[in-house]
């Protein structure tokens, strides 16, 4: 079943209203018509099975025939804070893949060793939307604006566990072991090319974060982020 995105404010009384870019995709790309059954997700975890009723010039309406809450979402709520990369296409790839794996929030990080001074947040949010629909998720991960590491640490109270990838720590303890049976919210921070500075690592430790390693080889930032999400949700 093809999935389409419809924000919660356009879903009410057992019906949905699809417009904008999603309408164009629905009608002009996927060639849907009245009577077709589609999937509609609200970006907050709810999936609706919808029968299209009326297609107008700029919008389509449909009737909800079935609803599933918390659709295909893991119990662990993972936020990835990742150092922004020199090559934006590599961060594109990262956003797409961690969305498919189940991350709920992506924070592009500004650190001591990051080089770019701006983030393509709008583009990455659109990539997350496309990946959400493609993989069958109903939750749309939020892609934050470029954020300094210190600001992320200031939010530490909202996370049940806080972890930092660091290549210079003992790699004998697996990430899965560190997480244990946590079913709440987890923050994992990954540095840019060159990793976090020693001062940043010490600041993270002082805020109650735990460092971990993914092994003896040095992974690219996007590889590490994807591997982390895969291990947590695996």
Number of strands: 13
The unreliable regions are none
Overall spatial form: elongated
What is the CATH top level name of the largest domain? Alpha Beta
Question: Per CATH, what is the topology of the largest domain?
Answer: Alpha/beta knot
Tell me the number of helical segments per DSSP (H or I, 4 or more residues long): 7
- Report the C-alpha radius of gyration, rounded: 20 Å
Query: What's the rounded overall pLDDT mean?
Result: 92
The CATH superfamily of the largest domain is identified as: SPOUT methyltransferase, trefoil knot domain
Relative helix content? 25-40%
CATH architecture of the largest domain: 3-Layer(aba) Sandwich
H-E string: EEEHEEEEHEHEEHEHEHEH
Report the biggest beta sheet as strand number plus sense, adding barrel if it closes: 7 strands, parallel
What portion of the residues fall into strands of 2 or more residues?
25-35%
Distance, first to last CA: 25 Å
Instruction: Work out the count of structural domains.
Output: 2
